[in-house]
Amino acid sequence: xxxxxxxxxxxxxxxxxxxxxxxxxxxxxxxxxxxxxxxxxxxxxxxxxxxxxxxxxxxxxxxxxxxxxxxxxxxxxxxxxxxxxxxxxxxxxxxxxxxxxxxxxxxxxxxxxxxxxxxxxxxxxxxxxxxxxxxxxxxxxxxxxxxxxxxxxxxxxxxxxxxxxxxxxxxxxxxxxxxxxxxxxxxxxxxxxxxxxxxxxxxxxxxxxxxxxxxxxxxxxxxxxxxxxxxxxxxxxxxxxxxxxxxxxxxxxxxxxxxxxxxxxxxxxxxxxxxxxxxxxxxxxxxxxxxxxxxxxxxxxxxxxxxxxxxxxxxxxxxxxxxxxxxxxxxxxxxxxxxxxxxxxxxxxxxxxxxxxxxxxxxxxxxxxxxxxxxxxxxxxxxxxxxxxxxxxxxxxxxxxxxxxxxxxxxxxxxxxxxxxxxxxxxxxxxxxxxxxxxxxxxxxxxxxxxxxxxxxxxxxxxxxxxxxxxxxxxxxxxxxxxxxxxxxxxxxxxxxxxxx
Length: 501
Hints:
Number of strands: 6
Shape: elongated
Low-confidence stretches: 446-458, 491-501
Order of helices and strands: HHHHHHHHEEHEHEHEEHHHHHH
Mean pLDDT: 78
Strand content: 5-15%
Number of helices: 17
Radius of gyration: 65 Å
Distance between the termini: 156 Å
Structural class: mainly alpha
Strand order of the largest sheet: 1-2
């Protein structure tokens, strides 16, 4: 209660011996007791309190000024936001302390504890220390620029190395594999070079045999035996590169050979020579071969053999089994042309991608003209009849249809198929036999006599009617596929059916 009494003590001298609070008379000696209580010691303590308050106010003022100066300076490294937050906390705590100090001054005897701000000051000092360390590091960097540049380069290289460690390992593995591959390729080159040299030596030995006439003689004798030419054979002579023809008894036959036999022997030697050469340097050279009418004076059996030899030459050229890069075959013989141009891969006579068809004609006995064709221009007589029939069907009143029908029936059914007219008629029903018989009679009559109008009821429809019956003959004899093929049904429309009366 000393603080309360002290307030009353200030007024007791003017209260005329009464208590300033309750207005009762003061006991004797009470004023003296108060004076002793509030003596010089109390005053000194109050002065000390005032001194502490002044010291606090001065310290806070210094701290405030220092922080404000720090915030006003342009320092690139310092976190001013952080310092400002700590300063705000210090100011708020200071407001609390000022209230506590004011309360302390009013009630000196009451114990008071100020709110500490050292933690906030410490945070500011830590930020200042951090900034100073960065400044020191920067100054040290500038002072040791050469050394620091080298350290920076080392760090950059170390960073790049770490970032590319996977790529480096991949590159090392790839380089290792490439080196192994190079080594393997070099080893294989060495091995292949040795193999090449060995093959060159072997080829040279084989070329020596090829340029010899002995292998040719043996091969041609094999061909003669295969084609049943047993009345003569080839024999080598003592002169290198020559051969002779002998009988089984050893007698020379070159003077007694027929023209056809001479031609065939010459063709055999020519075909065998295409696989080699009389000159060793020309063995592996590409060849352009011209075969001009090789079947002159040959019988049909030899013609077939020659055709097959040429077909084999064509096939080997297509499959790169020989050195023939281009082949010309010239002939006047239609049958030989048919045999040598036969190829089941050729659709409807259209030329293949690696062949051409030409017809060469003499114009005015002075000029030779060559005309190319997209399809095989040479047909057999049987094919030509069908071609003419296809053309004749486009003209309903054509007088050639009768003759063409008769010739086709005779060739296909009578000659090749061994069908008689009765065999054909027996394939039809009783009602259709009359119609088929009329077709055969009509065809035979039209092919041997000039047409008149006595038996033709409807001249414009007659061809169409009988052509339908002609087609039906192939149907009932199970040869309709042949009819479709020869009439080109896939490319041309079928002939419209007509009523037969």
